[in-house]
């Protein structure tokens, strides 16, 4: 029996959080959801995650700023966790911009949940 993978979903839309949770929990992932980057950093102080789904446009601390903060952490496990951007305005960013910020991948909104699941599985295998 493999251990349950822990996924942190950082997203300010409750609708997207609920849909994402339903899709990922069907695959037996353990899901924690927060609404902004500051809450991501607070969660990471006390917990380890196997992957983070990071909305780019969030209040308080956006996804790019939060990803850079995570990559700067001294804890190697936390600073190297795979981070997948979730973005509706991907046209404002190139894949290169995401990589420079430290993001491993991205999925665009409106979310294609098959693609989201495939992307999550790719980074968790």
Automatic annotation (TrEMBL):
It comes from the Bacteria. Residues 6-124 form the Response regulatory domain. One of its GO terms (biological process) is phosphorelay signal transduction system. Keywords: Phosphoprotein, Two-component regulatory system. The modification 4-aspartylphosphate is found at residue 55. The keyword Phosphoprotein applies. CDD domains: REC_hyHK_CKI1_RcsC-like. SUPFAM superfamilies: CheY-like. This is Response regulator receiver domain-containing protein. It comes from Belliella pelovolcani.
């Amino acid at each position: 029996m493999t251990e349950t993978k822990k996924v942190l979903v950082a997203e300010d839309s409750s609708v997207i959080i609920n849909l994402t949770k339903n899709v990922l929990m069907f695959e037996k992932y353990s899901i924690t959801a927060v609404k902004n980057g500051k809450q991501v950093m607070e969660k990471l102080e006390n917990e380890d995650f196997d992957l983070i789904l990071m909305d780019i446009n969030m209040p308080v601390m956006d996804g790019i700023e939060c990803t850079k903060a995570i990559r700067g952490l001294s804890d190697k496990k936390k600073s190297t966790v795979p981070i997948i951007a979730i973005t509706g305005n991907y046209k404002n960013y190139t894949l290169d911009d995401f990589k420079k910020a430290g993001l491993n991948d991205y999925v665009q909104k409106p979310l294609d949940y098959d693609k989201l699941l495939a992307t999550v599985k790719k980074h968790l295998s």
